[in-house]
Amino acid sequence: MLKSVLITGANAGLGKETAKQLAMRAGVEKIYLGCRNMDKALAAKAELEQQTGRRIYETLQIDVSDLDSVRAAVAALPEPVEGLLMNAGGTGGQKFYETNTDGVTQIFAVNLLGHTVLTNELLKAGKLTKTAVYAGSEAARGVPEMGMKRPDLTSSSVDEFAGIASGSVYASVKDATVPYGPIKYMAALWMSAMARDYPQIRFVTMSPGATTGTEGFETLSWLRKHVMKSMMKVMLMIGKVHKLEVGAQRFVDGLLSETYQSGGFYASQKGLTGLLGEQSEIFADLANVQYQNNAKQAIERFV
Fold it and tell me: Phi and psi for 288 in degrees, rounded to 5?
């Protein structure tokens, strides 16, 4: 059991629902709601307290796309946490392909670089003591049933991974779903490398699966957002996706159950919903130690 947990992207969607479910578990005494917007954070805190009947929530301002914000959040965290859920992410906005001052694309910053720095800073400060869970995606190994291709990399070298981070690999692409899968692939590799480097911490990549009711489409154009949300409703009716509560339950299980081993990447065995399985059994590259080290080394170029 974890007594305290920090959740990024906690004011809505999966982050908020996970915070709600965790409060129902005996032994959880403190949940930090990491959010960019403090007004939304305070509103979420009040709603969660009303829903759960527990006053165990604290807010922490953090924007994972801004490394200064990440470092300030770690400094402001008043005590160590036993668990970390790296839930914030998404498509990086309508200009996801633009690079920021750290030299990475917006989509890479919000999905991976910010969480890398957050984890490193927490470890350096002695403020993460037991478990780290990263919000993975089946897109990391491709989903043929949904027409999603496996990441098409030539070598998974340090330079190629660095090119994903900087945007040079997908310089002409204006569809955020194209770099999203490779970024999630890279994140899963990084988590496996971290598991070896910090054996005292359990590092788990856990996909929430295809989940309705999230904020994942909010940064898309109005038309694209409408199309995606409509499609999700249809897919829910035919059993190809699941509800918010199911996705959040995966995160709770990843945080609390040692069934999910350090360095593992757990997601749907088939499609985007259903039974969980270790993804390296589907996509062997995920278990390649050299690729894992290469991904970690590439990320560190931008820290």
Answer: -75, 115
